[in-house]
Specification:
The chain is an alpha+beta fold. It is built from four helices and six strands; from the N terminus they run ααβββαβββα. The chain has one domain: GAF domain (Beta-Lactamase, 2-Layer Sandwich). It has a six-stranded antiparallel sheet with strand order 3-2-1-6-5-4, with helices on both faces. The structure holds methionine sulfoxide. Methionine sulfoxide binds next to helix 3 and strand 6.
Length: 153
């Protein structure tokens, strides 16, 4: 499944709508997770937030997940440390991938920055299909991250 089937125009419009005028972090991350979870092939969607030098599970939609990820570890820790989006077409081929759920086959992780440009969390999406993410997904999820920076951080 490729991003062509995902209606990001509608999803981004909904994300702008649900976050507009709302400054509560938990409320916004929960609703953004819910909007993104409606997209085809999105098996798990959620956030890991920087807390005392590790990434800690925040609002998400999907099965139970790992709660803490050391910086630099897994796809999430790598994207955070590199300060850039990481697309993993096959999680089994990514050294250090943290398997929270055996069904996950591919993954995309996008860092979210505060207004001063420091990373403060990551947006993580897993698919139960291989090779589910491309640059179109990256662009839309990076736009989601920018919306969160503008409303929250
Ligand atoms: N696979 C991630 C861990 C988080 S779960 O996918 C929800 C990683 O390697 O960082």
């Amino acid at each position: 499944m490729k991003s062509a089937v995902r209606d990001y125009e509608t999803a981004l419009s909904q994300i702008r709508g649900v976050t507009a005028g709302e400054t509560d972090l938990t409320a916004n991350l929960a609703n953004v997770s819910a909007v993104l979870k409606t997209l085809p092939g999105f098996f798990w969607v959620g956030f890991y937030l920087l807390k005392e030098e590790e990434l800690v599970l925040g609002p998400f939609q999907g099965p139970v997940a790992c709660t803490r990820i050391p910086l630099g570890k897994g796809v999430c820790g790598s994207a955070f440390e590199r300060r850039e989006t990481v697309i993993v077409p096959d999680v089994h081929a990514f050294p250090g991938h943290l398997a929270c759920n055996a069904a996950s086959q591919s993954e995309i992780v996008v860092p979210v920055f505060d207004r001063s440009g420091s990373p403060v969390m990551v947006l993580d999406v897993d698919s139960d299909l291989p090779n589910a993410f491309c640059e179109t997904d990256a662009a839309a999820l990076e736009e989601t991250a920018r919306i969160l920076t503008a409303v929250l951080l």
